[in-house]
Amino acid sequence: MGDRLLLAIESSCDESAVALVRGGREVLAERVASQTAIHAPFGGVIPEVAARAHHEWLPRLLNDVLQEAEHLGVAGEIQGVALTTGPGLVGSLLIGAGVGSAWAWARGLPVLPVNHLEGHLRAAWLRETVGADEPALPAIGLVVSGGHTLLVRIDRDGSIQRLGGTIDDAAGEAFDKIARLLGAPYPGGAALSALATKAPRGARITPLPIAKTDQPYDFSFSGVKTAAIRQAMVANGLSDRSPWRAATLTRQFAEHPLSPAAAITIAAATEQAIVGALHAGVQRALRAHPDCSLIVGGGVAANGPLRAALASVASEERRALVVPPLKWCTDNAAMIGAAGDALLRDERGAYQEPSAGLEVHAQWRIGTAVPI
Ligand code: KG4
Ligand code: ZN
User: Fold this and answer.
1) Which of the two ends of the chain, N or C, has the fewest CB atoms closer than 10 A to its terminal CB?
2) Residue 371 resides in a domain
3) How many Cβ atoms from other residues are within 10 Å of residue 181's Cβ?
4) In angstroms, what is the span from residue 368 Cα to ligand 1's centroid?
5) Domain that holds residue 294
6) Is residue 134 part of a domain?
7) For the chain, the helix, strand and coil percentages under 3-state DSSP, each to the nearest 5
8) Residue 167: CATH number of its domain
């Protein structure tokens, strides 16, 4: 046990990625091609364009990783192919599943369908150095990305209980939408955060309101966006009561950009609100689950104030915290290899014949065996 070698493929959104992972922990080779520059002019991911880019890139990345496997002398040891089969953009998922199953079928290898969110959580088990500490279970897991905001409890391999998640926009999506209003190109989360750091020391920033949700571990971020738009309208001399449509506003703010001071204030208020809501949710979960450590995944984990807030709540509650290095927080295939390996260690795990035809799922709630 522990040293199975898997090839892994990720293509659920706008990153094409291939990796070779040993024992669910050690990354022998990996390649990621980001499509951010392709989608930036559209202000978001265009599914058809994403699928075509995966079609162009995945075979090349696969070739590169396999060449590296040859150099390492491990190409013959690959025992299976872990593939993201949901949740995500169906066209993109189909390209990854098609490329991966075809390769597996040609070599008589089985495939493993992996949930992308489970991948984000499993990234915490990837080790940069052999022998490094790994997450302690049970753990509270937070996934915060452009497409997802999710809180779970993980008891052991394969036993993941969903505690809550966003009921509207994901945290990263809220960052990106407000960043766009402030004039930053897609995806604007990092730019918004950089803007927020320019707020003068001691400046009084009133965080934007975060809507309360019925469930204690759910999040709602669409209200932050509305509040930011209203603040921006007022800063530009418009009444916050005038009717607005997203397209009109985007044009209006492109023609009359916010003053630097207003943009900084709105950025800081946005960041405080989103980080505050995530912090509160995690604190509540840790207090209700005193036996749990904390693990985090997803691209928004790059956010400095969020990392600081999670570090401080973990230390206040005396819990171990694992946040993977940034390259494994954003979409990558190594985490899919780690999740595939975990699937085989628990009772759910079963390889599938690639010739059986893989189904992909736009929606797939974590913690369920059957996608819903
Ligand atoms: O996990 P990821 O690479 O892609 C998805 O699976 O969605 O996450 C990308 C998201 C984007 O929304 C991006 O704006 C956000 O992560 N992000 C940040 C920061 N860096 C990336 N959000 C806030 N602050 C950052 N520093
Ligand atoms: Zn992701």
Assistant:
1) N
2) no
3) 27
4) 26
5) 139-323
6) no
7) 45, 20, 35
8) 3.30.420.40
Ligand nearest to the CA of 10: 2
As given in the structure block, the two tokens for residue 364 are: 């797939």
Same domain, 36 and 169: no
**Is residue 236 domain-resident?**
yes
Same domain for 156 and 108? no
pLDDT tens for the 372 residues of the chain, in order = 458 999 999 999 989 999 999 999 999 999 999 988 888 888 888 899 899 999 999 999 999 999 999 999 999 999 999 999 999 999 999 999 999 999 999 999 999 999 999 999 999 999 987 667 789 999 999 999 999 999 999 998 778 999 999 999 999 999 999 998 888 888 899 999 999 999 988 888 887 888 889 999 999 999 999 899 888 888 888 777 766 776 777 777 778 888 999 999 999 999 999 999 999 999 999 999 999 999 999 999 999 999 999 999 999 999 999 999 999 999 999 999 999 999 888 766 677 887 777 899 999 988 755 554
Ligand nearest the Cα atom of residue 296: 1
267: in domain: yes
Tell me phi and psi for residue 162, to 5 degrees.
-75, 125
pTM of the model: 0.93
Helices 246-255 and 171-181 cross at an angle (nearest 10°) of 50
Residue 269 corresponds to which tokens in the numbers above? 């208020």
Cβ burial of 177 (10 Å; 0-12, 13-18, 19+) is: buried
Residue labelled with tokens 């088990």: 125
Q: Which residues surround ligand 2, an ion (CB under 5 A)?
A: 145, 331
Residue ranges around ligand 1 (CB below 6 Å): 13, 145-147, 172, 175-176, 187-190, 193, 298-300, 302-303, 330-331
Six token digits for residue 186 = 């897609």
| Residues 237 and 267 placed together within one structural domain of the fold | yes
